[in-house]
Amino acid sequence: MLRLDNVTKRFGKNTAVQKASFVVDKPMMIGIIGRSGAGKSTLLRMLNRLTDASAGEITFEGLNVTSLRGAAKRNWQSQCAMIFQQFNLVSRMDVVSNVLHGTLNRRSTFSTMFNLYPDEDIRRAIDILARLGIAEHAPKRAEALSGGQQQRVAIARALMQDPKIILADEPIASLDPMNAQVVMDTLRRIQDEDGRLIIANLHTLDTARRYCDRVIGMRDGRIVFDGSPQQLTTGVARDIYGAGAEFSEAATSTSIETLETSREELLHEAEAAV
Amino acid sequence: MTQTPAISIHEDYLALVRRRRLYGGILLVVFVALMASGFNLADARNAGSFRNGFTQIFDFPADVIGEASGKLNQLPAHFLRFFPALVETINIAAVSTLIGASGAVVMSLFATRGLALWPRAIPLFRRVMDFTRAMPEIVVALVLIYVLGGGPVPAMIAIAFHTIGALGKLFSEVNENASLKPVEGVRSVGASWVQTMWLGILPQVLPNFLSYTLLRFEINIRASAILGFVGAGGIGYELKNAISWGQGKYDEAAAIFILLFLAIVFFDQMSSVLRNRLTQGGRS
């Protein structure tokens, strides 16, 4: 159903993603792992068309996603929901309004400006919140919620889109372990119950092993591993993270990250300059 | 986490939404009614009628463009002739911005909570700034022209007067957001109030001050052009002479408009480049 052909993204002199190709033929949960700056976020952003690919082609059920423009592109984005590391909610608006933003592609600008959503959409939004266990926070402002709750609001917004794909860009990287587990359980449950394709960028190996049906490893913009979680041995992980023999499973994601922040900053600067 | 409480949540939230829509609708109706009645009142007090006059709104610009395009070959000569007047206008703006901004820095420090030398006098300085902001430049200029005679000096004083109030308010808001840690550090070694402000506050806020000042400079160029109409010299005076009805000088008016436009574009571009360099240069 989803096919990537030599998808490449360059920011000036830097190449963020280099000829990424893979095929997905049925809905499942896919984890993309790799250290910061490996191009995971850029890959997801190209899938959603938040970022344009420099070269290559993405096709979904016969539709050439990379060539879409204007309304067709926005229609694709409405079917391809995105969840972000920092939740990216409108923090001054209430929770239900944030969830209703999932329907923006179907709403006119006029009704959006006056916050006129149909009653059945409002009911559905609260149903989704109830399914994620946060319905009692419905009238609160998004900023009043904890990080884990905000991320579940973001997931509810994604579900409100009734998407074919859910992309999750480091969905648990800013959450504590308890909330991280709740969010990952939720994503897993959505895949099991709704049968949607979920692609998540993950920081930690154990999360990918525990929740995903398939794992893709990226290093320096290239896909260096593509296989089942069982095939993801410590040796393979060392290759993906570019670590030496001292690398152990116990190494936390943050310790790897601190080594790599400078590279990522360079990439962000290049991104801002383009 | 069960489904049962969700039912009342539905109804509660829908009631909330309906209430918000009702309030929003009432506000909208009041707003539209006020706008409509206000328009009718304004139209009734007009000498002519808006509906009849509206169609003729482009007659005057069409006259100007028509006459100017007939004498296109004279435009370069006009540019040369009016350029000194433009320089005078810009000079008035530059001097008044400089004086006004310097005054605004002092006023803003006296009017900021937590920094002021005499905290009790903060309301006094605020009211002084309100007053200078409230006085239209043109009124100050007219009074000064009456006292001092025509020329650039009254215009300069008038614009500087207004600039003190306008920039002082913006500066004092910047000051409020400044960190007090360097202030405490400098104060702890026994520095005087002026030393504390000079070393503890100004280095933090100067980039913002400069960016606001450059914006004000652009505004002051326009203000100084307008003051020319009341006899303060500069390009506004020339424009007033050229644009008066039925003198056949619309080509000159067009040349002045183009000069003014180019000057504003030039300073807008220059100040945005400068502002970018300031804010980004400050970080790296």
Characterization of this structure:
The complex is a heterodimer of chains A (274) and B (284). With 274 residues, chain A is an alpha/beta fold. Chain A has a single domain (2-86, 166-273), classed as P-loop containing nucleotide triphosphate hydrolases (Rossmann fold, 3-Layer(aba) Sandwich), CATH 3.40.50.300. Helices cover 41% and strands 22% of the residues of chain A. In chain A, the strands form 2 sheets. In chain A, strands 6-7-8-3-9-10 form a 6-stranded mixed beta sheet, with helices on both faces. Chain A has a 4-stranded antiparallel beta sheet with strand order 2-1-4-5. In chain A, strand 1 and strand 2 form a beta hairpin. In chain A, helix 5 packs across helix 6 and helix 6 packs parallel to helix 7. Chain B is mostly helical and 284 residues long. In chain B, helix 8 crosses helix 9. Chains A and B meet through helix 5 of A and helix 1 of B.
Number of DSSP-assigned strands of chain A = 10
Weakly predicted, low-confidence segments of chain B: none
Spatial extent as radius of gyration of chain A: 19 Å
The tally of strands of chain B reads: 0
Structural class of chain B: mainly alpha
Kindly report the oligomeric state of this protein.
heterodimer
What distance separates the N and C termini of chain A?
A: 32 Å
Q: How many domains make up the coordinates of chain A?
A: 1
- Rg result of chain B: 26 Å
Q: Which of globular, elongated, flat, extended, rod-shaped describes the shape of chain B?
A: extended
| Main beta sheet of chain B | none
User: Mind telling me the CATH class of the largest domain in chain B?
Assistant: Mainly Alpha
Q: What CATH architecture of chain A do you see?
A: 3-Layer(aba) Sandwich
Indicate the CATH topology of chain A.
Rossmann fold
Low-confidence parts of chain A = 251-262
